[in-house]
Amino acid sequence: MVLIKVNSSKVTYGEDIIRSEYSYESSQVQEGPDGSFTVTPYNVEMKVKTGAKVPKTGLMFVGWGGNNGTTFTGMCLANKNKLSWESKRGHHTADFLGSVSQIGTFPLGLNAAGEEVFVPVRHLLPLLDPTSMEIDGWDISSMNLADGMKRAGVFEWSLQEQLRPMMASLVPRKAVFFQDFVAANQADRVDNVIPGTKWEQLEQLRRDIRDFKAKKSLEKVIIMWVGNTERFAELAKGLNDTWANLEMAIKAGAHEISPSTLYAVAGILENCAFINGSPQNALVPGVLELAAEKKVFIAGDDLKTGQTKLKSVLMDFLVGAGLKPESVVSYNHLGNNDGKNLSAPQTFRSKEISKRGVIDDMVLSNKELFQSGLGGPKPDHLVVIKYVPYVGDSKRAMDEYTSAIAMGGLNTLVIHNTCEDSLLAAPIMLDLVVFMELFQRMQISVRDSAGISHHVEMEMGQLLGYWLKAPLSTMTNSLFRQRAGLENLMRAALSLPPSNNLFLVKGALQKEVMKNQTSVVTNKSEIISTNNALNKKIAGHVFATNNGVPAKKELYAA
C-alpha cells in the first residue's frame, strides 16, 4: 500500500500511472595526457512513468523442490496464513526478515524540526504483495514440496507440521536435465525429466509457462533459476554467440546448450523476465541478444547471501579508508545439496568465478593503492568450498583479510560467519522478484535537442546487483552504492532528488527555504507527522511511526 504522496507539480498520481519529472545530474570526466582531469557537470531532464496497478503475478522456480524453493514457498505461505510456532528459543511469528522490500526503510527527508525521517520501502511505490503471488515450478525430483521441505531441514519441525497440508499437494513439473552439466552425485535425485530433444524440451517449457499463466489467470510470470550450479558452458562462434546461432544449436541438440540456457530462452520467448540465481553462464550472448530484441528483462548471476555480501562491504570499507588489502582468503563448508553439487570441480569453478569477481571494481577504484607499493597489482584472492554433510543448511564461512597499513604495518581481520543458507536466500529471492516486477512497470524517457523522446534502458544487472554476486553490466559491487542506486531510482519516480547526506539546510533556514518549495505529505498521519510526540527519535534520526512504534517496528518492536 502506498502511503506517501509528493506534493509537487512535477508529480501526478493517476489511476493507472504515476508520472514524475526528474532532473538527472552527473558529470563527464576527461583525462589529460599529464594526468589532469577536466570535469563537466551536466543535467538531463527525464520523465518517469510507473504503473500504479500491480498485475496479478506468478513466479516459476527452476529447482522448486530444493532447499531454496521449498523455503521460499513455505515462507510466503506462513506469512499469508499468519502462522506462529514454538522453538527452544521461544515463540515465533512468520516474517520477511532479510527483505529490503518488506522490512527495509529509506530516508525520505527532514521534518520541520530538521530531523531525518525514515519510511518503509513498501510505502513509496506500489509493490507486489508476496502473499498474493502464485508459485509454480520445475524440478528434476518428483518429490512434493512438503517432503522436500522435510528433506531440506530448514524450518523448525513445529512450523513444518503446519505447512505440510498446504505444501503436500504442490508437485514440481518435469524438468530439463543433462547430467554432464552438474556433479555426478546428483543422479540419485533424477526421476522427473522432460523427454525428447533439446528443441522439444524447450517447447515443453513454453507450454508449461502458458499453462501456469492460464490456470491462475496471471497477467505476468517471472522465472528464477534456483537449481543446482551448472558447469560453465563453452562460448563459441557459431554456437551461442548470436540468437540465430543459438536457435540453430538448440534445434541441432548441440552438447554445450545447458538446461539453464533453455529455461532462459523459454522465458524470454514467452515474454517472462528471467533471473539466474546461480553462477553458471546461462545468459550467453545469444540469450542477451534475444532478450534485447524482445525487450524482456533478464538478471543474473548468483544470489549474494552471506560471505560475498560481507566481502562487498569490507572491501569497500578497507579501500575507502585508504588501507591496502593484500590478501583475501575465503573458506566455506556446508552440507546441503548445493554443497554436495559443488564438490565436483567443474561446478565449483562456476561458483569460484562469481565469488572472486566481487572485489575487482573496488580494487580498480583506487590507483593510489594498487599501482605501486607492497604486494602485486591486485590482492591475492582465494575461495575454498567444502562439502560437510553434518552441518546441513547451516553454512560456515571463515575469512581472513590482510591489509597493509601505515609505515609498513599490517592489519588482519578474521571473521567467522555461521548462516542458515536458505533462510538468507529466500528474502533475497523475494526482493529480486518484487523489484524486477516494479522495474517492468517503470519507463524512463528523455527528449533530445530536437524534441524527440528517447527511451532510457534500465540496466537490470546494475539495479538488481545488490542481491547478485556477479551482476550483468555492473558499474559497482559496493553494497551500499548498489542500495543507494535502488533508493534513488524510487526517489526519481517521485521527482525527489537523490539522497545527498549533507544535511546543510535545516532548522530556521529549512523553514525559510521550504516556503515555496516541494513538500512531502502523506495520506495517513501514522507514516509521517511533524508532531514530535508521534515520532521516535533515535540518535538524531526520526523513524516514521504507527501509534508511537518506529517504522522499523518489523525489526525492533518488543
Question: What would you note in describing this structure?
Answer:
By secondary structure, this protein is an alpha/beta fold. It is built from 18 helices and 24 strands. The strands form 7 sheets. Strands 2-3-4-18-19 form a 5-stranded antiparallel β-sheet. The radius of gyration is 25 Å and the shape is globular.
Oligomer: single chain
Helix content: 25-40%
Intertermini distance: 24 Å
Beta-strand percentage range: 25-35%
User: What is the number of helical segments per DSSP (H or I, 4+ residues)?
Assistant: 18
Write a concise keyword list for the protein shown above.
alpha/beta; single chain; 5-stranded parallel β-sheet; globular; 5-stranded antiparallel β-sheet; 24 strands; 558 residues
SSE diagram, text form:
Blueprint: E1 4-7, E2 11-13, E3 17-31, E4 37-51, E5 57-62, H1 67-80, E6 84-87, E7 90-93, H2 100-103, E8 105-110, E9 116-120, E10 134-138, H3 145-152, H4 157-167, H5 198-215, E11 220-225, H6 243-252, H7 259-269, E12 273-276, H8 285-294, E13 298-300, H9 307-320, E14 324-334, H10 337-341, H11 345-356, H12 360-364, H13 367-370, E15 380-387, E16 394-405, E17 409-420, H14 421-440, E18 442-447, E19 453-455, H15 460-463, H16 479-492, H17 507-513, E20 519-522, E21 536-538, E22 541-543, E23 545-546, E24 549-550, H18 553-556
Parallel strand pairs: 5-10, 5-11, 9-22, 11-12, 12-13, 14-15
Antiparallel strand pairs: 1-20, 2-3, 3-4, 4-18, 6-7, 8-9, 14-16, 16-17, 18-19, 21-22, 23-24
